[in-house]
Amino acid sequence: MSSAAENGDAAPGKQSEEKTYKKTASSAIKGAIQLGIGYTVGNLTSKPDRDVLMQDFYVVESVFLPSEGSNLTPAHHYPDFRFKTYAPLAFRYFRELFGIKPDDYLYSICSEPLIELSNPGASGSLFFVTSDDEFIIKTVQHKEAEFLQKLLPGYYMNLNQNPRTLLPKFYGLYCMQSGGINIRIVVMNNVLPRSMRMHFTYDLKGSTYKRRASRKEREKSNPTFKDLDFLQDMHEGLYFDTETYNALMKTLQRDCRVLESFKIMDYSLLLGIHILDHSLKEKEEENSQNVPDAKRSGMQKVLYSTAMESIQGPGKSGDGIITENLDTMGGIPAKSHKGEKLLLFMGIIDILQSYRLMKKLEHSWKALVYDGDTVSVHRPSFYADRFLKFMNSRVFKKIQ
């Protein structure tokens, strides 16, 4: 089985070499995603609105899309494939909860080609983003898809009581089957909008053992750094006004308790930092070089689930630090220890790791070899406590 990790990121000079995932060309995966979701979401509009029932979480709908087309499906130039939609009514309800209308969902995913991101994680998954920046589409392993299905009822009971969350917002789970291969994909909120430049990006777990970006990662144009890098670059932490700080901490605490109750660990906080003082200079440069981006950010709406909304709910905006006339793209205003004005974008990622036997084994042997408490794989309650302690003592601070 071939993975994106084995094929590596296409070198800049070799853009024509297409990535494959499980022996399938990424163009075929992108095409199947658009055709499949186009069909299934269109099909859903004919189903009446009603409350979600327990059994809705276990429904799987399946449609066959032959390349020559059928009376239900359009012709296409990819190999024949079957497209499965998991819990369609439940996910429709979740999308509504976050204010995503079926037409907008379809338009975002199906109207323009999906953009493939160079692999941000070590998982070997493929990542795509919709051209309007709204959604991330990620391939997941069978175990992760299965775990998400099990998680759905409890996860969404929790969302219902509390839509303010930094947990991933899952909008759909699908599977494309072709030539005996299953490719499972999940559609999620995009935490870091591409139309706003991230001057720094961190993946934070609250662990210091081996948590430094690799040399290979550092050579990328937009590297993702880790905990030790953060402590080195931002040793004083990031500062918020009291109200924003309290809202953020409350959200993180609640989210971690939810993850702990599902026995989930090894998640990260993905944190994007945009330095406002730098961005004015860059705007002029970008506009002269980068026409498509300038054009796009002009029409860019604030996203469905912004970082600010995730901690405060809609309708409030932290104006303690930043002037109002600025389009903050839903970022959370903060300051660096040097007094620079920042916008922060963040979300908890990688929650589909259940603390199963493998993890327990991994922890036991790592603990023998190293000091157990600094290792990133840990019991869920310990993991949550360490994660929170790191966030509220090292990363986020209140302006005195």
Overall description:
37% of the residues are buried. The chain is 38% helix and 20% strand. It folds into two domains: 23-189, Phosphatidylinositol Phosphate Kinase II Beta (2-Layer Sandwich); 200-279 and 329-398, 2-Layer Sandwich (Phosphatidylinositol Phosphate Kinase Iibeta, Chain: A, domain 2), CATH 3.30.810.10. The strands form three sheets. It has a seven-stranded antiparallel β-sheet with strand order 3-4-8-9-7-6-5. The N and C termini lie far apart (54 Å). It is α+β, with helices and mostly antiparallel strands and 400 residues long. Helix 2 (26-44) packs antiparallel against helix 4 (102-110).
Number of domains: 2
**What is the helix tally?**
13
Q: Distance between the terminal alpha carbons, to the nearest Å?
A: 54 Å
| CATH architect. name of the largest domain | 2-Layer Sandwich
Could you name the CATH topology of the largest domain? Phosphatidylinositol Phosphate Kinase II Beta
Q: Look at the helices and sheets and give the structural class.
A: alpha+beta
CATH superfamily of the largest domain: Phosphatidylinositol Phosphate Kinase II Beta
Strand content: 15-25%
What is the class of the largest domain in the CATH system? Answer: Alpha Beta
Order of helices and strands: HEEHEEHHEEEHEEEHEHEHEHHHEEHHE
Low-confidence stretches are 1-16, 290-300, 316-325
Q: What would you report as the Rg, rounded to the nearest angstrom?
A: 21 Å
* Helix content percent band: 25-40%
Shape: globular
- Overall pLDDT score: 81
Largest sheet: 7 strands, antiparallel
Quantity of strands, as a count: 16
Strand line-up in the sheet with most strands: 3-4-8-9-7-6-5
